């Protein structure tokens, strides 16, 4: 297989049937995809995913190993990957409509080289878009929760030390600067102290 | 057999594709098909064998399958959108209870015996016996990962929650153990090649590991939390609303199959049918044990007698097939406890909308004949396996 140096994406193809695998691999020859084919299932598949860190995974809809991929994002810490399914059965077109996260595309029917490549391109693009949205959401949530912690710490200081809001905020900020800590961490310390005091009183 | 339904069903769907997993507890679906219970309800059912729960789920969501055998927590997961998009999936009938087992590798079994200086370990094996092994491994090496590794079949499954309960009940911290997902058919191989130290899986895979001499079945789901739903009949809520009569007919046919499976003799016959290529394609000696209430433990020890190892029908005077709300709540509580459900999700009335006992009851309201279980007639050839 010829390799292009730039923008080459690692594809892990999971397929027990050598013939089907060959067709898919030749469809992707001379593209920016570098295909590694495995026929394993179970533990050895998990190891392969871990070692190869593929950019895309292609798997037959009917493969028992689908549950492994499905679970990776739920109970393991593996990074989510775009997964492309293929199947000879036409019903995958229908399945495709229900697919959003994790699985990014289904290839149905005959494997047409031109189509496969564009499906992979789309899947990768759609997946990165989805991941970007998701991480943005996580960041926003984090930001909100850190604001909430600081807010709570402020209220506690105001109530127990009879400070104004401004004074309370300055006190937290000063502690953060003195100890080179984040505002959020200082606020958390204050709150856990508050909790301790409340318990002992 | 009541035939009025066949006429009603003209307004509904006759041709049904029904997904099943090649496991011991797919018996009700196979029996309803083989013994003509579907047919006598006016249904033309095609059983579609699936190899992964994720595929089963996707196909049901997409309408490629009309209905399917689901792991009991799966309709809840689908409805909440825990894996993929949220789709309202209902469970109007429970197909089976129990059936899972925890099997450990021969090596781990020997290690437990060695650490505890025992020749014999009482059954069911307590996970507490693992603690010194875990500690010893922690001390042995700090760099490499030497955690005990257990496998199970799907995140939203009774197997997974039962495995965690087994650890927790016996004081094993789940962080001290690795848990991975492996398809049922690859479990025995993974155990044999020392990739995992144990697994929690349904039949016939525990029996297979024991027969092959690669594992010891230490506990069954009956030892951990008995008599909870294991597999359910699942369908999209929208599908049920479009085809209420078909749904009833499906439930009645499957109930007849479950009732037929009430006797041990019939369950042995079911094992013979399941061993066929179209279904499990495995030897009778690994399929039959759990169906006839026998838990193989160790290839050199006598099996444990566990009458409800695979249960499909009556428990005393009450049916197990009606989806009980408290069963659903129990499954939900497991999902919440193990953080599969985000804390902010509102759960009130969720089980009401998933575990649809009203639909189950409606199916029989017009069928008084089935208010009492159908008479069970064992087939002629009923040889028992040793």
Automatic annotation (TrEMBL), chain A:
Positions of the Response regulatory domain: 10-124
Cited Gene3D superfamilies: 3.40.50.2300, Winged helix-like DNA-binding domain superfamily/Winged helix DNA-binding domain
UniProtKB keywords: Phosphoprotein
Keyword set includes Phosphoprotein: yes
Source taxon at top rank: Bacteria
GO BP of this protein: phosphorelay signal transduction system
Residues modified to 4-aspartylphosphate: 60
Pfam families: ANTAR, Response_reg
Residue ranges of domain ANTAR in the record: 130-191
A molecular function (GO) term: RNA binding
Database matches in PANTHER family: PTHR43367, TWO-COMPONENT RESPONSE REGULATOR-LIKE APRR6-RELATED
Protein name per its UniProtKB record: ANTAR domain-containing protein
Organism whose genome encodes this protein: Thalassotalea euphylliae
UniProtKB/TrEMBL annotation, chain B:
Location in or out of the cell: Endomembrane system
InterPro entries linked to this entry: NrtA/CpmA_ABC-bd_dom
GO MF annotation: an example: ATP binding
SUPFAM superfamilies: Periplasmic binding protein-like II
Keywords per UniProt: ATP-binding, Cell inner membrane, Cell membrane, Membrane, Nucleotide-binding, Transport
GO CC annotation terms, alphabetical: endomembrane system
Pfam family, one: NMT1_2
Protein name as it appears in the record: Nitrate ABC transporter ATP-binding protein
Native species: Thalassotalea euphylliae
């Amino acid at each position: 297989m010829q390799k292009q140096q730039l923008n080459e994406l690692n594809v892990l193809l999971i397929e027990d049937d050598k013939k089907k695998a060959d067709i898919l691999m030749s469809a992707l020859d001379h593209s920016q995809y570098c295909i590694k084919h495995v026929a394993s299932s179970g533990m050895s598949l998990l190891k392969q995913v871990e070692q190869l860190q593929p950019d895309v995974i292609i798997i037959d809809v009917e493969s028992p190993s689908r549950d492994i991929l499905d679970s990776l994002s739920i109970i393991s810490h593996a990074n989510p990957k775009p997964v492309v399914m293929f199947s000879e059965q036409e019903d995958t077109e229908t399945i495709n409509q229900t697919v959003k996260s994790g699985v990014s595309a289904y290839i149905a029917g005959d494997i047409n080289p031109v189509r496969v490549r564009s499906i992979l391109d789309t899947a990768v693009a759609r997946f990165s878009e989805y991941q970007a949205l998701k991480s943005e959401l996580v960041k926003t949530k984090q930001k909100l929760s850190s604001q909430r912690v600081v807010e709570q710490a402020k209220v506690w200081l105001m109530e127990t030390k009879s400070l104004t809001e401004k004074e309370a905020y300055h006190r937290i900020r000063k502690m953060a600067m003195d100890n080179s800590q984040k505002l959020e961490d200082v606020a958390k310390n204050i709150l856990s102290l508050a909790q301790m005091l409340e318990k002992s009183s | 057999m009541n035939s009025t339904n066949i006429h009603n069903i003209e307004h509904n769907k006759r041709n049904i594709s029904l997904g099943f997993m090649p496991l011991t507890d797919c018996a009700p679906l196979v029996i309803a098909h083989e013994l003509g219970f579907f047919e006598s309800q006016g249904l033309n059912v095609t059983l579609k064998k699936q190899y992964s729960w994720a595929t089963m789920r996707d196909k049901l969501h997409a309408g490629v399958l009309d209905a399917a055998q689901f792991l009991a927590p799966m309709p809840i997961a689908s409805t909440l959108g825990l894996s993929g998009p949220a789709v309202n999936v209902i469970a109007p009938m429970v197909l089976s209870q129990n059936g899972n087992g925890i099997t450990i590798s021969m090596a781990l079994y020997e290690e437990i015996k060695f650490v505890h200086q025992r020749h014999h370990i009482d059954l069911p094996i307590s996970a507490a016996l693992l603690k010194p092994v875990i500690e010893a491994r922690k001390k042995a090496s700090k760099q490499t990962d030497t955690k005990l590794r257990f496998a199970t079949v799907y995140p939203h499954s009774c197997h997974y929650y039962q495995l965690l309960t087994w650890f927790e009940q016996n004081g094993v911290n789940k962080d001290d153990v690795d848990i991975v997902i492996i398809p049922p058919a690859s479990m025995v191989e993974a155990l044999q090649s020392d990739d995992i130290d144990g697994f929690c899986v349904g039949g016939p895979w525990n029996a297979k590991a024991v027969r092959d001499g690669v594992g010891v079945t230490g506990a069954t789901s009956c030892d951990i939390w008995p008599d909870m739903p294991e597999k359910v009949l699942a369908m999209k809520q929208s599908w049920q609303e479009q085809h209420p009569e078909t749904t009833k007919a499906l439930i009645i046919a499957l109930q007849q199959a479950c009732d037929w499976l009430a006797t041990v003799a019939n369950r042995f016959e079911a094992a013979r049918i399941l061993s066929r290529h179209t279904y499990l394609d495995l030897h009778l000696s690994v399929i039959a044990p759990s169906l006839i209430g026998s838990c193989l433990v160790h290839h050199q020890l006598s099996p444990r007698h566990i009458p409800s190892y695979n249960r499909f029908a009556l428990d005393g005077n009450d049916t197990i097939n009606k989806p009980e709300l408290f069963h659903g709540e129990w499954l939900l509580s497991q999902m919440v406890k193990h953080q599969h459900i985000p804390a902010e999700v509102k759960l009130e009335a969720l089980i009401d909308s998933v575990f649809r006992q009203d639909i189950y009851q409606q199916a029989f309201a017009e069928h008084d004949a089935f208010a009492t279980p159908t008479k069970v007639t064992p087939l002629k050839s009923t040889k028992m396996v040793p």
